[in-house]
DNA sequence: GGAAGCGGAGAACGAACGTTCTCACAGTTC
DNA sequence: GAACTGTGAGAACGTTCGTTCTCCGCTTCC
């Protein structure tokens, strides 16, 4: 009984490790080649995990896709929080574009997986569309918090979000990380304009 | 002989009309559902053109995809030129974002087809990647011309391009046209900042 | 009037997909 | 040692894809 409990525990731990390995591999393949271009048999070949075991760990390909996107979402949040280190200031807002620059310069960069997945499956797979919308919505909401903390008017937040989105697609298609630096320069101007007190703004004259 | 030449001419005209109809239908379906989600048989059913005739007019599905993208490229250029009416001024640059707003508010808006196609096929179909890159490159080059005509420094052009790209993906995912107006506001600030003479800029102090 | 060639409908092909099943074999339990 | 359980490799299933082929009715020309 003690041994069986022990065995069950290690099996569960093995399952978790296997699931993680599968999700990492799936993330890499889906991101690099596109979701529809990677079949379950390719995933089996790359992970060395048999189809039977794959389907014991995940009920369907779509569930793998969803978990990959959710893991990316958590990774993105970590990167953003590392960049802004908790609170919103002018420099922390700009640090987001430095984070983007580092990402774009990686040689396996192929754009934002959420944007790519939305273009590929957004119209046919409602769950994917929902995850993408939620991801982008949460980023915009976090930006709004940071902008408020920095003392800038709320209208700045969507502007910064649009710059980040545009930088991601531009860098992906152009194949260079230049767009991150251009977006950063634009963000600097927008932030400074938003922080500069205006006649009709809520700041002091 | 005269009749045969006549017949050949009408046949050629019919072929051209049929090709146009097929390309319009393919554009609508690919744009709405994604390219990989629309098979040749769906295209046959929607156009009423038999598979045999489809393959007589186009050598392959990929060639249809390419022609659809090239037609979209020409349509985009027309929309841009209508908005800027030839020359670049502050107002003409902003008119691009008004054009985007009108586009986003159409109920069949589903983002930029070039971005969507790139996410879906960019990694597996080199010709598609090439067309998308060329399309975005030409838009950036045209923006650079307009910015120069408006008397603003060259660094403004990629910033405006990034705003336009970001607005397209943001609007597509959010499902609202709001991003166009937000991008327009940001563009206004960036253009004014670029046109305002600075100490180290090339304008007068 | 009959032969010849066309174009349309849709079957057929080979490949790939997501998913399930078979089968042989290992380890565990009485 | 025999029955049971779970696993891996991979065949198999049903569907869908892009593309080609077959058949058949219609027109056209001698």
Automatic annotation (TrEMBL), chains A, B:
Gene3D superfamilies per the UniProt record, alphabetical: Tetracycline Repressor, domain 2
Record bears the keyword DNA-binding: yes
Boundaries of every HTH tetR-type domain copy: 16-76
Coiled-coil zones: none
GO molecular function, one term: DNA binding
Keywords attached to this entry: DNA-binding, Transcription, Transcription regulation
Residues within the DNA-binding region(s): 39-58
Organism of provenance: Rugosimonospora africana
Organism superkingdom: Bacteria
Protein name: TetR family transcriptional regulator
InterPro entries: Homeodomain-like_sf (IPR009057), HTH_TetR (IPR001647), Tet_transcr_reg_TetR-rel_C_sf (IPR036271), TetR_C (IPR011075)
PROSITE patterns registered for this protein in UniProt: HTH_TETR_2 (PS50977)
